[in-house]
Amino acid sequence: MSLTSFEVNNQVLTVTAQKDEAGDTLSGTYSVKGGCADGDTGTLTGTRYNNLTGTYAGDTQNDATKGIGLSVTQAGGTGSGIFLMTGSATFSGFSCFTKGSLVAGGVSYISGSSTTLVLNTNEGKSSQVTLIGTIDKSADTLSLSSIQVTGGACAGSYGPAALVTK
Predict the structure, then answer these.
(1) CA-only gyration radius of the chain, Å
(2) DSSP state letter for 21
């Protein structure tokens, strides 16, 4: 494929790329003519990821008695590579809360392989769980690098964890 942008601030971006046989990756080059980035060139690579949709579960690695179950749906995109998430969670081993709901309004999202999920817990509005991590290409595993609880009696750090599809 070959794409040429409209002129923006006297700059034109040209991308030339090709997908692999399976259609899972895209690689190519880009160049910029005009404006402050005139002459800039480089390579690009893109990877197709499956939707982060379904039921995932796993235990925290720091304390296997604390478990997280997620039921999530990847919703529509914003047009800038960000896809909004909806869903809920169940928690085991936390003394302060057992359930959570994903916060809407662009707070819970996925972009490429990176995801940020923020949940209001049933302990009260001041108690939130923030899950930050990445997915694999097939979206079978959600690898959480950070699990932060803010507000409420269980505030603290509980990560990492690997949640897998059920």
Answers:
(1) 20
(2) T
| Cα distance between residue 135 and residue 72, in whole Å | 13
The amino acid present at 123, given as its one-letter code, is: E
In the chain, where are the structural domains located? 2-47, 54-165
Q: Which residues have a Cβ under 8 Å from the Cβ of 79 and sit 6 or more positions away? A: none
> What is the CATH number that goes with domain 54-165?
2.40.128
Residues 128-156 pLDDT 10s? 999 999 999 999 999 999 999 999 999 99
Q: Could you give the CA distance from residue 19 to residue 44 in angstroms, rounded to a whole number?
A: 12
The span from the CA of 80 to the CA of 145, in Å, is 24
Closest CA to 138 of 47, 49, 26: 49
Provide the total of helices (H) and of strands (E) in the chain, helices listed first.
0, 14
Percent of the chain's residues with pLDDT above 90: 86
CA distance 99 to 52: 20
State the residue for tokens 């909806």. 86
How many Cα atoms are found within 13 Å in the side-chain-facing hemisphere of 161? 25
From CA 165, how far away is CA 161, in angstroms rounded?
13
Helix (H) or strand (E) segment spanning residue 79: none
What pTM, to 2 d.p., does this model score?
Answer: 0.84
Distance of CA 119 to the CA centre of its chain: 14
